[in-house]
């Protein structure tokens, strides 16, 4: 952790600091096969700490761009999760589709200028006051119940990042600098967690994320049970289950379960 965030820790109220440490401890208690539950738990904890109305998580990857002037420099959202289902789901997917075509908002451009380093920004850190009068803000923020946001990006390697959007509604005050820095402190210390989330979706090693079926198999593989028991739990044939296992190994570039587990431990497979 940088000296900046060591100093920031001394500025957080003791009650919030206790809640942050409790949240970290709770996340550490989730085994690797429960990454989806752990993500939901973190998002709920962030809502409670910040008074947010919703949380968005995005697993982002940098791909070979199809056009030379790509304003996103190849970065694309590949997995999105929201703590609470809402009109935000549709709006977020619409924005992801626009990004694929190079239609990208100023806030995203500014955020991606720092790609490769940990960063936390409020909307007002990225754009001037005139942006809050734009159709984009009215449609994609106010139109889905959001008045302000803090976006935090945590690089895991050169081509993958874990993004969190902490969203406040119209009945809540804008985020202060101190609140932004507190959110940054919470998420900067969780690089292991960001890595685990991206691994569980296949995003550290594959351009194409794991399918829903492969993710279910992966989480069971990580518990250590046999392929036969995995097939029984999923109520599928052993042959079908084995095909899913083979596909998972192929996407992660490993040959067996031991090598797969090594990825989660941050070791060379």
In brief:
The chain has 269 residues and is α+β, with helices and mostly antiparallel strands. It has helices at 3-9, 14-28, 35-50, 87-100, 106-112, 123-126, 135-140, 177-188, 191-200, 212-221, 227-234, 238-252, 257-264, and strands at 54-62, 75-82, 119-122, 148-157, 160-168.
* Radius of gyration (Å): 19 Å
* Name of the CATH superfamily of the largest domain: Transcription factor LuxR-like, autoinducer-binding domain
- What is the number of helical segments per DSSP (H or I, 4+ residues)? 13
H/E element order: HHHEEHHEHHEEHHHHHH
Distance, first to last CA: 26 Å
Please provide a written account of the structure.
With about 270 residues, this protein is α+β, with helices and mostly antiparallel strands. It has two domains: about 5-185, Beta-Lactamase, CATH 3.30.450; about 210-265, Arc Repressor Mutant, subunit A. The chain is about 50% helix and about 15% strand. Strand 4 (about 150-155) and strand 5 (about 160-170) form a beta hairpin. The chain starts with a helix and ends in a 5-residue tail after the last helix. The mean pLDDT is about 90.
Features:
Arc Repressor Mutant, subunit A, 269 residues, alpha+beta, Beta-Lactamase, 13 helices, 2 domains, single chain
